[in-house]
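Posted in: Protein Modeling Q&A

I'm a second-year student putting together a small comparison for a lab meeting, and my supervisor asked me to include a predicted structure for 3-isopropylmalate dehydrogenase. I've never done this before, so apologies if this is the wrong subforum. The sequence is pasted below exactly as I got it from our records. If anyone can share the structure token output, I'd also love a short note on what stands out.
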Amino acid sequence: MTNYTIALLAGDGIGPEIMAEAVKVFKLVEQRNDISFNLVEAEFGAGAYFKVGHPFPEATKAICDDADAILKGPIGLSHEESKKIPVDLQPERGALLPLRRRYNTFANFRPVSLPKGLAHFSPLKPEVIGEGIDLIMVRELVGGLYFGKKEVGVNEQGLRYVRETLEYDEEQIRRIMHEALQLAMRRKKVLHNIHKSNVLKSSVLWNEVLEEVAEEYPEVEIRHILVDAAATLLCLNPGQFDVMVMENMFGDILSDQGGGILGSLGLMPSACKGPEKSYYEPSHGSAPDIAGQNIANPYSMIGSVAMMLENSFGMVEESQNVWRAMQSVFAEGFSTPDLSKPGSDVKMIKTAEFGDKVVAALEAMPVPK
Ligand code: IPM
Ligand code: MG
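Accepted answer (user: helix_wrangler)
Welcome! Here is the predicted structure, written out as tokens:
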């Protein structure tokens, strides 16, 4: 029997609630398959800071180093609460970016996929949604403005200034392009390249390297779109997109817009792939306003588990079963308050019930051979 060790970093806000539902799925998957999971919980985020003085404690680093994969919940506090933590130890800067850097998770995959049973929840009109929304954003995750040199000071005129640099070398671009092109080969063989080469030199190099790498994938059709135009087209006609590739900052913004066209960031799981280790996380924040009420939908966390099963453990069929199980719960008309419009006729359930229903649906599916 194969045994995998998985680090569970529940995080802040709604993190522990939705993590509990992901754990139910792990338990059932190991029961159904010839596999066992060693689930190891560790502190991470603002909670870890208040408990042990650091948002990414040494003990957590050791647990993550030993794990085969990491499942990470959302982190962070409300704007007001954040001020109680020194700037460099706030969980985004003090924990999340160091996690990405530690495992060099350069490729971030963010599916923007609207479950059929939730079409009414999207703010887009049915005629815009058409056959559905099912695209995936590939975001470079360890370069660009996020990780460039930073300088803050007072200039010769006595004015406060800041300088942040956007840097990429060709190798960083090449490796993300390979990921995106390989994904396009497994899907519809169309890749939308998102750039801003009419202004940014970084995009000029980005596009040059893409053209070189694309020669190895002659079957993939490349379509170039400026990032601002892409933002508009995501609203007007999302069905034209399948795989989209972009640098770090563009990916941060456009992937939230992806959540917007679905109706909620609660529908956004993700995978962050490094050369040796990958971690998985919802793309949304910790939603402190609804924390502790058992009303957050665990879709993004369970979806992250599905992505882990496929990408870290090669369990492609079981991963699809998990997706289907979640979709079936929506298709039966159930939803949680955070994923329901006021006045709609959904059958309202709580976080834990949603998780239980996903588990029941998965249990009813044939076990992959
Ligand atoms: C995301 C988040 C992070 C980012 C924050 C929490 C630092 O918004 O994963 O998209 O900007 O990358
Ligand atoms: Mg973001």
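A couple of things worth pointing out for your meeting: The first strand starts at residue 2 and ends at 9. The radius of gyration is 21 Å.
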